[in-house]
Amino acid sequence: MPHRHKVREIAQQSGLSPATVDRVLHGRPGVRAATVAEVERAVEELDRQATQLRLVGRTFLLDLVMQAPKRFSDAVRTAIEAELPTLRPAVVRTRFHLREEADPSAMVDALRTVRRRGSHGVLLKATDHPEIIAEVAELTRAGVPVVTLVTDLPDSERRAYVGIDNRAAGATAAYLVTRSRSRGDVLVTLSRSEFRGEEQRVRGFAEALVALDPARHIVDLTDTDGLDPTTLSAVRDALAVHPGVDAVYSVGGGNRATLEAFDAAGREPAVFVAHDLDQDNTELLRTQRVSYVLHHDLRADVRRACRIVMQAHGALPGTPRSVPSHVHVVTPFNQPSAFAPPLP
After folding, report:
1. Are 184 and 149 within one domain?
2. Following DSSP, what letter does each residue of 288-339 receive, concatenated?
3. Contact residues for 100 (Cβ-Cβ < 8 A; gap 6+)
4. How many structural domains are present in the chain?
5. What is the reported pLDDT for 343?
6. In terms of domains, do 96 and 107 share one?
7. Is residue 317 part of a domain?
8. Is 323 exposed, middle or buried (0-12, 13-18, 19+ CB in 10 A)?
9. pTM as predicted
10. What does the mean pLDDT of the chain come to?
11. Same domain, yes or no, for 224 and 184?
12. How many angstroms separate the CA atoms of 102 and 285, rounded?
């Protein structure tokens, strides 16, 4: 039985005699299975407590560097601040570097500032841009682990990606659209095609749509940054040119503006699939303006990201690795109670 504890410590933890513990550890015969299980449980408990002891008094300073609409960055910030107390006995502090508009040079400047000031780790949501990838490499060489959040930079030197399987999420959206009463074209709205996660969602959606309903067409809109003014203008123009659109898959947000454009055109989408239970989508889902929200637990994501940073510094056991988050299909009738009141 592999372990790193003294026989005396295991005996104290299990309540067994040192001689019995020694017999179990060396696999000698004549020991009951229940006794072996008690020793194994004691070793596991000592392992966990040793990890906690290593974290006592440790302070980690993390930097969240993110380009996203304020409604989403606010949701991520709230999730991080809610999770920080659960990371005790370590103390984790976070600095926030948040932008709404796509500007790779500004993101690079933010990352360089983090590198210059020093950090224990960076949680990053950024476009797949060569200068950003190069700066991730510089941070890695400086000993600052980078964890990509929500959208990945797979060709970079980041330590791990935390977020959903975006391609599978897009395919799920296509399934929901094709099982609805919608029969027309599908409006797919992105914030930026340079976000690898959004590009993967669209690819998964398109592939599944061809397999499930090959006669359907996709109308792509991108480069709105997911902001309401730019989204409103782009959707209005698209609806004027494509009268057959009767479904929406919102990859990058701006959903209030999308619905405002439909209202102005005197039309109503037969199905509307969105991502993330932010403040806007929670209300739109509750009032049934949005049909489905593909939701993942942001608190679980940021908790995992923080633990990956700690693993990278040897403060927690295990090797940092990417693990996809679970995607939940949320309707107006199964919204988590933490997000919205039940329907009347």
Report:
1. no
2. TSSSEEEE--HHHHHHHHHHHHHHHTTSSSS----EEEPPEEE-TTS--TTT
3. 67, 68, 69, 70, 73, 225, 227
4. 3
5. 44
6. yes
7. yes
8. exposed
9. 0.79
10. 91
11. yes
12. 28
